[in-house]
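Structure ticket #2291
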Amino acid sequence: MQPRNMSMSGVVDLAAVKAAGEAKAKAEQARAEAARNGGAPAAPALVTEVTEATFESDVLQRSTEVPVVVHFWTDRADASVQLQETLERLAATYAGRIVVARIDVYANQLLVQQFGVQGIPAVFAVLAGQAMPLFQGAAPEDQIREVLDQLVAVAEQRFGITGVPAEEGAEVPVAEERPPTAQEIALSAAHDALDQGDLGGAIQAYRNVLSDDPANAEAKLGLAQAELLQRVEGADAQAARKAAADAPADVAAQIAVADLDLVGGHVEDAFGRLVDTVRRTVGEDRDTVRLRLLELFEVIGSDDPRVTAARAALARVLF
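Resolution: structure written out below.
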C-alpha cells in the first residue's frame, strides 16, 4: 500500500501567529533557564514509548522544544515493526532535532480516536502542542527522510523549535515483548485467512473482532476488503459491464461494475458510477447504492483525496 498524506500540506494551520509566538516563548524560556542553571537543556531520549497517561508530558510538553514524530503502531504487524525500525534509525541520524513517540494502538484506544487514526502504521507530527498528519502506511526511507527534513525546517522557521542535541551514542529503547491479546490473535487470524484467500473465514473473523470492538479501524478495513473480494470472485467482467450499459437503471448491475472497477484500481470510475446512480434513483434503491458507496470508501480509506471528493459529490446529490 502506498503511503497517504505524505506531505506537509497541513502545516499552514500550525503556523498561526499565536501558536508560533507561544512556542518560541516557551523554547526561549527553557533555554534561558538552562543557561541560568549553568548548562544546556537535557538531551532528549530519541524514542519514547508513550501511553495515554504520559502523552501530555512526553508529547505535548516536549513538542515545545523538539518536533515529536508520533507513530501509531503495533509490534504484531510487520509493516509497523519495519516502519518503527526506520524511524528509530532516522531519529539517531537527526541527533536530537526530532524525537519519536511510539504509541501502541491496542493499549491506547483513546489516543487512536483523538488523532482519527484510520489504519496502521500511521505517523503524525506534534509541534508546539498541535498535531498534523504526516503519512499512513509503509514508505521508503528516502521519502520519510524528505518529510522529516520539511518538518525540521518548519519547526525552526515558524516556531523557533530547533531540538536539543542528543548525547553521543544515545541508545534507542527496545519495545518489551508481551503476549498477544485475544483481540490481536483474532485479528491476526483474520489477516491470515484473507492472505490465504479464505474470504468466508476472513469475513467471519473480522466480524468476530468487531463484535467485541466495533470501533476497530483495522478490522473495519479488513472486513470491507474481504467482502469486496468475495463479491467479485468469479465474476464475468465483460458480461457485467454489458449488463450495466444495457440497463442504466439496474441498481445491482451498476453496483457490480463499481465493485469490479475498485478491485481493478479504477477508483474514480467506481465512485463516479455510484454517485450517478444515486442521482438517478429514489427510495430503497437510492439507499442501497449509497450504502455500497460508503462501504467502498472504507476500502480506500477516509483520508484519501478521492474519497473526500466523492463524499462531496454524494452530498451534493443527496442534499
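Closing remark: The domain at 9-159 is CATH 3.40.30.10 (Glutaredoxin).
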